Amino acid sequence: MSSLIEQLTMAPLIASVVGIAVAFFFYFRVKGLPEGTETMNMIGQYIREGAMAFLMREYKVLAFYSVGVFLFLWIAFQGQGTGLLAGLCFLFGAFLSLFSGFIGMKAATYANVRTSQAAREGSKPNALLTALDGGAVMGLFVASTAVLGLGVLYYIYAEDTHLATVLHSFAVGASSIALFSRVGGGIYTKAADVGSDIAGKVVEGIPEDDPRNPGGIADNVGDNVGDVAGMGADIYESLVAALVAAMAIALTARAEYINGLFTDGTTGMEARFLAVTIPLFLAGLGLAISILCIFIARALRANAPAMVLRAALVVPSIIMVVAALAIMPALGVSMSIPYALGAGAIGGALIGLVTEYYTAWGPIEKVAEASKTGAGTGVISGISVGMESTVVSLFIVAIVGFLANAVMPEGMGLYGIAMGTVGMLAGTAIVMTVDAYGPIADNAGGISEMSELGKEVRDITDELDAVGNTTAAIGKGFAIGSATLTVLSLFSAFILEVNFVREAEGMGSLVLKLDDAPILVGLLIGACLPYAVGASTMMAVGKAAQAIIDEIIRQFNEIPGLREGNAEPESTVIVDIATKAALSQMILPGSVAILAPVTVGFLLGPASLAGMLAGAVAVGASLSLFMANAGGAWDNAKKHIEAGGLEGHPKGSEAHKAAVIGDTVGDPFKDTSGPGVAILIKVMSVVSLLIAPLIATF
Amino acid sequence: MSSLIEQLTMAPLIASVVGIAVAFFFYFRVKGLPEGTETMNMIGQYIREGAMAFLMREYKVLAFYSVGVFLFLWIAFQGQGTGLLAGLCFLFGAFLSLFSGFIGMKAATYANVRTSQAAREGSKPNALLTALDGGAVMGLFVASTAVLGLGVLYYIYAEDTHLATVLHSFAVGASSIALFSRVGGGIYTKAADVGSDIAGKVVEGIPEDDPRNPGGIADNVGDNVGDVAGMGADIYESLVAALVAAMAIALTARAEYINGLFTDGTTGMEARFLAVTIPLFLAGLGLAISILCIFIARALRANAPAMVLRAALVVPSIIMVVAALAIMPALGVSMSIPYALGAGAIGGALIGLVTEYYTAWGPIEKVAEASKTGAGTGVISGISVGMESTVVSLFIVAIVGFLANAVMPEGMGLYGIAMGTVGMLAGTAIVMTVDAYGPIADNAGGISEMSELGKEVRDITDELDAVGNTTAAIGKGFAIGSATLTVLSLFSAFILEVNFVREAEGMGSLVLKLDDAPILVGLLIGACLPYAVGASTMMAVGKAAQAIIDEIIRQFNEIPGLREGNAEPESTVIVDIATKAALSQMILPGSVAILAPVTVGFLLGPASLAGMLAGAVAVGASLSLFMANAGGAWDNAKKHIEAGGLEGHPKGSEAHKAAVIGDTVGDPFKDTSGPGVAILIKVMSVVSLLIAPLIATF
């Protein structure tokens, strides 16, 4: 390793260690804050225990899964001489995800009740700060461990011939845990949400967070296991996958193309390893900038929190692009890299704006308006809005891809696209902070309501919650946009890897022609798979929600005094139903993601597998955007009506009930199936990349 | 033209002339039947006039469009020396579509009231026969004119260098008219259906076909313009596109690959033109078999009509495969062709069965069950069922593609896939007959109800209608399955054509590598487009339905005595709203389909265009299957509850109301957006194929 590369590798390692230290600082700061009344304390503890219990049971399932994959990799890569190494790197990637999820979610479950307490003390800025710090633990952990894990492996194995396998196995660990966490958490949170909502509002006529609702605790637990832990695993994976894609392309691209990246005449292995190191360095730079921005956001929080949080999603990327514009020429690197970064950063911000427009502005008024003539027209309108937003968002992704490709020197277009993704994900730490802030604020509202803290407290938590809803929608747009570009990069990395191996074996490149029948057959198979995950996750939420509704109705009928508020609901029974449903139903979609590329790869060969990935990314990217945005539109159309936005149709009117039905459909759309499909396509790409050497000579 | 090729070309021409003659025979037979009471006569006339008025106004819009495209082609193909020819062939393809739609729909609007009259006379077999004969006019016309049009052009231009342009322009005419008709008719029928349903049932509490409902006539008109005329244009296009794809591949495939098709040593131009002629010949064979089967179905109608109609969808394909197994060796043609045909025929039947399972059996009981806890869970459940059916159906299409490719000699895999499509579409005449039978029976029920003919008459028409609903779902599965394979074939035909032109210009083949950035960018653009059509058509139906609801409420409030049945509703106002909405809203999706390939092709070149088509087929095939099947599942879940299938939840219960909401969402899913998306991908492929020579040298 040359000293330049060593320095460029050390920088992100340092940034990530700082990130983890700051995360621990926030963790202990939040934990040390006062918890409020005994009731609040108790409810907070119920939520924390329910959430941690779910996580522990989920981890047990994942432990079995991980051991299985570990053994599979050990055996499968025996022939490559990397069996144990591949298995261990996979475990490392998985472990960092689980560890971040664990500590981040624990912080969130401390922060929720303490945010409620700060609101009870009447200080909105303090309440905001508590929720933000709680979210920052997860935000900093996921970004830092992603950079740290990859950085350490790269530092150790940079000059090892097995570097590719090391990085890819790490990514498979990150990706598959993300899929399980996101899908399991997503099923849990939406089953609990939909179930307790319907049973409460529709059947028993009581509000969402009413202390009598037996589903109230499960609903709040769900926010933590789905929107904090699940989301954390998702975002950790995004960063890992984007970096691995860029590094993998640099590792296998043709030498003369790599040389074209350098203006100072750097060539050969030095050029190649610089190209591998740059994405990691930039991610570390993004992390450092994000840490700074978190502190700036904290300082500015009192004035216009909505603007501050929104800016927080966009500003780090912009700063990083400017920094890259200054640094890259100094390293003798072509300006094309900061340009590609910039295309990604601007594209990400645009997608965020588009998502916000479709889920918070004019279009949701149309959905609310359509709800006046019933749920049928309301749902139709939301679907139409979701579809339209998909067109615009995906078109922006396409333009980013086009530009990131166009600015690069010959042959490095796909490296440029990977750089665009890195640019989009520069602010990961702060995006995740804001993402985790949302459910903490939401929980704080729930706790305030269940503890009957009164309207003034609830007003503060409601305002914090509203800010979180908008930023959550923006964050989702970012996530899916970056997922799409990441998959395109991984996809090309896969093909490069296949041909790299073939050439090393003296077999000659495989030309994957778009009009070869095996590729077209693969395309159709790939097009099925996102729907398989969509179907199974929608069904899982529907079934579990029905079981929860039945149980809540049973409790109201069988527990004397519950309806009158004189008896305690049996909340743990609901928590248990949601936990079991989530854990059992996450297996199928998770297995599809792992087994589909392995099966197609080994049975039909790399050409069909490439076709499959192409079909899956086209269908998966559009389907997940559609589901996420339609869900967001219904959610906010309902809130728009609740806020009195539809004259003559207040909360409780027929139009509002119609909008609630839209929201019910949208819940699993936006928080279970949509994100599940987005991760699916990444998992399949990462798995394909890992097994590329095994099937290259098919 | 060798005498063998001449004979093989004459056979389908004769079959199609026979088909048209038989169609006219049915037309006049139906027209001569008695019309029943004065009220029936009047209602029948209202429907006919409304339907014909829509068609006339639609044709005016299409005339402008056609003239525009005609001029564009004239200018664009000037350089190729085929300007006027391309324009005229386009007009010819469009004209045959419009002509078939006109006469077929006219027959349907004669048959509906006469079916009602036959039911009034108490004869179920006669009622069935009338509806069937009425449907057969459309069925025979679309299949016959497709074969006739292509056959005549081929006969004239077989030895002309411009044959490809001739065939492709004809297909563009057929495809673009199909898209407009399907989308325009789909918007009309579902806006009227949803609008009058909601206004009637929900707002005013009166049944769907109540004579007081001002939307009743428009609803029945909609069945004709959407499910008869729109569907007819769709199916005509399917056959044209499938044949043109097969012929285009044969025209441009490499000579040594073509030779591999023949076991008797035929080579050179004779081999190539035999390969071009065979699909046309087989379509003629399928048409002849279908004509026979229509007569057999008519003879057997008295016993188990449901079984007879179901068999009618599958049997012609099977007979054709058997016939092909006998004939092909006699022509010295490899057995691989009948094998590929067989794969398509069996795959088509399987998709039909899968579609029926998901939209008529166990899954719809689950959807009905989920409706017990409200519309939210009901809609979630239907989405899940729709998605699952998509996975299975698309997987079957993939397997058909795999097999049809695998059985072929080297290099002709895509010709095999095109043959599979021809096998799937062998029974077009009878499939369309059964498809058009459905809305005729539905109309007959509506007319009986509006004319207050009593329960016994209504029982007969209800039974006929129920049979039609199942067969409609099967027909839709067939249509989308064949559309997917057709697009794959067209897609490869496009690439072959591009390279054919490039080689003729001495430019060398374009290798479309799946991992080239322009292709991946195209893939993303293609993934957007089906959502653009989905969004605009869903929005169109939603908006028009709301306008209709408002107008119906106005009429009930402002027309004295309407609610009591003492005054006539102003039906024509509703007809007018639906007509205007349909005609204005079909422009955008239609333009997307034409302009997207032209824009991408000329701006980004053939590689991005190919990527775009790949993305569009992956997304479009899955999205349209999903929408069609989810819609079918909701529809039949509602009917299941109405038939008393959900104990304790009869018609009018909360569960039923929830299911009605699902059905409302499903209406535009299955009859507007789903089919619209399916045609979109075909139109884009056909347009790409046509402009291939213009952009090949990009």
Structure description:
2 copies of one chain form a homodimer. With 698 residues, the first copy, chain A, is mainly alpha-helical. Chain A has one domain (3-695). Chain A is built from 19 helices and no strands. The radius of gyration of chain A is 24 Å and the shape is globular. The two termini of chain A are 34 Å apart.
Describe the structure concisely.
Chain A has helices at 3-31, 38-76, 83-120, 124-157, 163-204, 216-252, 255-259, 268-300, 305-330, 336-360, 362-370, 375-406, 413-424, 428-450, 455-504, 517-558, 571-585, 587-642, 654-695.
Strand content of chain A: under 5%
Distance between the termini of chain A: 34 Å
Radius of gyration of chain A: 24 Å
* Helix run count of chain A: 19
Number of domains of chain A: 1
**Which series of helices and strands of chain A comes N to C?**
HHHHHHHHHHHHHHHHHHH
Q: Would you tell me the structural class of the helices and strands of chain A? A: mainly alpha
The biggest sheet of chain A, with number of strands, parallel, antiparallel or mixed sense and barrel status, is: none
Low-confidence stretches of chain A: none
